[in-house]
Design a protein that fits this description.
Elements: H1 17-31, H2 44-56, H3 61-73, H4 77-92, H5 133-145, H6 153-162
Helix pairs in contact: 1-2, 1-3, 2-3, 2-4
Amino acid sequence: MSTPLPRPNPFDVTNQFASHCAYINCLGLEDRHAAVTKSGNLTVLICARFLGYMLVEAPSDAGRDNIASEIIRCTNDEALQTLAELYKNHFIRCCESKHRFTCAFLCLPDTTFPLVLSTKGRTPVPTHHPSPPSFEANKEEYKVLLAVTPKSHSEAKKRVRLSNFPTFSN
């Protein structure tokens, strides 16, 4: 069983308002987990705690603000579960390997989310992969398409006007 979210809310309502509100959403989902219909692979309780601990354990204020804004945008319990599944599949799973693990665990004590890949043997020597023959044959043709990056915003706008691309003004 995973560890319950810390109470009271660890985020200050005046200085960390978004994190405070997002954490309230996680605590609410944790409290009513038995009454909520499961919508993904994770249990509702794990979803609530996973998102809550992502807020608590975020390595930076910017990361915490990002997660908080995504949690706040969730309009119902199903959306919170979908968000937790998304983070599980694209944040945690990116570190999985089919080999043996030297494991570290994130967010939820007593759950197994491997974060460090296998250290079975030495790191392989990088190999050089030549460009596909089709690219090599057309390399000179592609050079004509390259353009120097403009040095200023006004120069970039001028180039867009000269190229007859449609422009939009505020």
